[in-house]
Amino acid sequence: FLNGQPVTWYPYHAPIPYVQQAHLDIQHQFPFDLFVDAGYVWTRGIHLPYWRDMNQVPQNLLGPGNAQLNRPYPQYAGINANMEDGISNYDALQLTVKRNFSHGLMFTANYTWSKALDTETISNWYGTNSWIVQRSYEPFANYGLGDLDMPQIFNGDFVWQLPFGAGRHFESHNSALNYIMGGWQLSSIFQVHSGTPFTPLMGTSN
């Protein structure tokens, strides 16, 4: 009934996916209302869903001609299988410097230095080329930088109460000037980060 068509297959005894996590954190309060936090984060995913074509043409049979005839089960097209054997690893150093509002200034700055590795995601994961696997019979050939890997991330925010106007450092004796210049503040949210990986693809059987 399904000859010549793509089919989907689920292993009968599929393992349960799970994630292991560890977090080590050190915090310290410094003078001038400065708070510093340093942490290490480790995450590992095991038995993750890993879809791939189990009817892929073997590498040694790639070449010109009818690729369908070289599939392990030529009576079917692709056999889309969820093998539940994917893995992922994430390691990160996270640093935070924070100052609570004092003397007209508050800020938070975060820096993350990390690496994300897995077997499944690629740069076109959410596009038309999702679930691209180099060799279905050698799934860990795909293990490498994950689609969301950003080695360096720097972000934060600040609020600065400008020192002009009544009750501020630069107070004027002119009430009109105090009214115009007083009560202002600057604030911002910012983020700078590395780019994500790029994976070139070539969709051909030869």
What is the gist of this entry?
The chain has 206 residues and is mainly beta. It has one helix spanning 175-181, and strands at residues 7-9, 18-30, 34-48, 51-53, 79-82, 86-102, 105-118, 144-145, 152-161, 185-193.
Q: What is the count of β-strands?
A: 10
Mean pLDDT score: 86
Query: Could you tell me the strand content as a percent range?
Result: 35-45%
Structural class label? mainly beta
Whole-number radius of gyration? 28 Å
Give the CA-CA distance, first to last residue. 29 Å
What is the helix content?
A: under 10%
Shape: elongated
Write the H/E string, N to C.
EEEEEEEEEHE
Number of helices: 1
Structural overview:
Mean pLDDT is 86; it is low at 125-130. The strands form 2 sheets. Strands 2, 3, 6, 7, 8, 9 and 10 form a 7-stranded antiparallel beta sheet that branches. Strands 1-5-4 form a 3-stranded mixed beta sheet, with no helix packed on it. The protein is 3% helix and 44% strand. It starts with 6 loop residues before the first strand and ends in a 13-residue tail after the last strand. It is mostly beta strands and 206 residues long. The radius of gyration is 28 Å and the shape is elongated.
SSE blueprint and pairings:
Elements: E1 7-9, E2 18-30, E3 34-48, E4 51-53, E5 79-82, E6 86-102, E7 105-118, E8 144-145, E9 152-161, H1 175-181, E10 185-193
Parallel strand pairs: 1-5
Antiparallel strand pairs: 2-3, 3-6, 4-5, 6-7, 7-8, 7-9, 9-10
Key words describing this protein structure:
206 residues; mainly beta; 10 strands; 3% helix; elongated
